[in-house]
Amino acid sequence: MTVTPLGIPRRLLEFTLDGQEARVPEGSTILDACRAAGKDIPTLCEGDTLTPKNACRVCVVEVEGARTLVPACSRRAEPGMEVRTDTERARHSRRIVLELLASSVDLSTTPKVAGWIKEYEAKPDRFGPDAARLNEEPRVDNDLYVRDYDKCILCYKCVDACGDQWQNTFAISVAGRGFDARIAVEHDAPLTDSACVYCGNCVEVCPTGALSFKSEFDMRAAGTWDESAQTETTTVCAYCGVGCNLTLHVQDNEIVKVTSPHDNPVTHGNLCIKGRFGYQHVQNRG
Amino acid sequence: MDLHFGDSKPTDDERAAVDALLGPPESSWEGADRSDADLRWARGGRAARDRRDLLLPGLHAINDRVGWISDGALDYLCRRLTVPPAEAYGVATFYAMFSVKPRPATVLHVCTDLACAAAGASELCAGIESRLGPGSGVHVERSPCLGLCERAPAALAIRAGDPVRTAVSAPATVRDAVLAASAPDSAPEEPPAAMAVPQAGDPALTLLGRVGVVDPASLDDYRAHGGYTALRRAFDLGPAGVIREVTDSGLVGRGGAAFPTGRKWQATASQPDHPHYLVCNADESEPGTFKDRVLMEGDPYALVEAMTIAAYATGAHRGYLYLRGEYPRAIRRVQYAIDQARARGLLGDDVLGQGYVFDIEIRRGAGAYICGEETALFNSIEGYRGEPRSKPPFPVEKGLFGKPTVENNVETLVNVLPILTMGAPAYAAIGTGRSTGPKLFCVSGSVDRPGIYELPFGATLGEVLELAGVRPGLRAVLLGGAAGGFVRPDELGIPLTFEGTREAGTTLGSGVVMAFDGTVPLPRLLLRIAEFFRDESCGQCVPCRVGTVRQEEALRRIAERTGAAAADDIALLRDVGRAMRDASICGLGQTAWNAVESAIDRLGAYE
Fold first, then answer.
1. Who among B368, B540, B554 is closest to A55 (CB)?
2. What domains are defined for chain B?
3. What ipTM score was computed for the predicted complex, to two decimals?
């Protein structure tokens, strides 16, 4: 049984959310409050195990008295605040953000985004056929995972997970500036020449499929990737005594990728190379 | 952290450049030769990581010496500073003045921004590029505003070496610019800073009073012209007294945001967390702005004294002056002034014999407009990519190194001197009720006498332009720079105050007044502004990173179109512009559409 630490009891604060009174524990973000109230706000760069970077701006909401819109994922609720999540102004910015992303990035493997594009009536084609795109080729330079930066929305989650928020390896960073900014290792070298330790914790948090298991990448390329035919089984890693949880994604009796539950109070979805990628022996039937 | 380094080694030059900044390496762990002592050497934890802020100076050191930053040089610097190479690579590729690819030792930056474009920069650039092609030993770089608008068109040559040499050619001809790039040492000396101040010598001047009157190198001259009386008064008043005076004077920030300075100082001074820092923002990169350069070149001790007062009032003992990398002469002069002041006991452990400890360090920018944003500037000083932080928390609470920080623009700080010498009531009597004091205006473009003008707040746009000798055929005036807005020639009655420009639906910004006649078509200017924002967006948030690209694409499509043929793209521009304004993280994205919008709505561009 997983014991969920409850933490120190927190005071509740009151504010207005879309005209309704909302009561949330002190320190909650507007997004926490929205989710508690059952409101669906689109998010991309927000991650349940990371400090919000609020870079994608798709979760913006209107706060009474603020000059600009504010990101729901990182702005903390304050007593007396008046927040509106569904105004024309907020919806406009969300729609444009979706259009800007969809017109420049390959969002084909981003969960939920197709629904949001429909909901917000975003028209990514309006920028014309010559609109600049990232135009990146997948980087296949190792046997474990693939970096397909054509699908990268620059959410910074992989950088944060690799850096001081989880792994402390600091193998990747954002390099370049503006539209030319890309995630890169030092000197933009292949991964095999970098500080990467192949923990795959970047793959765990990537929201768009820009980082994916080599197995998933190959199966998608071959057209055999079928999530509906996959089962997910959470078990315990057998490599060492820590006992991290593994979730094995199995298709046709083969492990196709490994994730880890984000709500695990010890590992928060993080693994090491052995737990993440060391499953081949299980299916070595030769 | 477990750092990983590749096999690339630094050249002797690169190693020497880094060692000149950081001292020789202490152990093979830091890149020295192996010895037995290495087994008993360790540096870890805070002591190792706390030198991260030397990353930017280190990159400068390499780039100054060699002209670009190689893998081996970057790795060596990282080893010395305990910085992960991937992060340092991210920082090095952030700045326009650095290159991580080999290039010639000499780089000639040719300004193609607004004032220079109107003065024929595109022909100049084409001429220079045809003379300095591949193999010439000079890399020609088309550059955003170099802050030399009063002498447009401008070019800045930087030749790497020991020491690095620079030469400015402005107003530049193809011949002069090529000469500056091929022989920076023998290029003619730049004209004195006072040449940028047409009113120089006028006894009525408050902020510019010493420019052209005193020798900018001489501390004695500065003191003979009223220097350091304000600091004496500050010590008499005490920190709380100084803040009271500044608050009563009604001084607001001159960098563009117009935040009340006294309130900012009070908020910082009252923070219980210590140490407090003072940061002076001299990363003047708004196209059309050059007032801070002229102040620093013409009256550098004034800034040193003003920073000392600001630090004293807010309880800071360390001040950082973040100075634009494109201003080599200002850097030299202020550095000399700081050294002189320190030697004479006006900085250091016992300022003016009052027992107050304060010193100033100059940090040089490396070509990034975004670093003028206050929190991006903190990240830049700390050795991170110059990306804005999200607010709150605000700098007065968590600023530089996470500590309470007061950050002011050069012009704002220099205003503190007259506030203390003449007293708050007398200062507040200058200007209008809500915009007090004198204001500097950077006038350039289609005028006979471009330069910095000092006028009390409340002077109209027409008065400023008349003073500068506006030429006939005025088509538009750009107020506030690229982040500002255009106004029509029939709107010259706009009072140049914060409230006056706001009422007129435009902005004063940093005090740019750029006059345009019909020489350059308006769509070309708008396209240049859009290119500027695309180039300078840090790339952190989507509305700005992609929005500035889409804005430029749309303006390129309609460059030759009007009326119905442009209507669809104008609708698209409005949609994207509105999202950039509403949803971008910082002021860069929020203002990236201002000038274009004003040109469409006020000037009727594309009609």
1. B540
2. 12-92 (no CATH), 106-187 (3.40.30.10), 219-427 (3.40.50.11540), 430-517 (3.10.20.600), 522-603 (1.20.1440.230)
3. 0.95
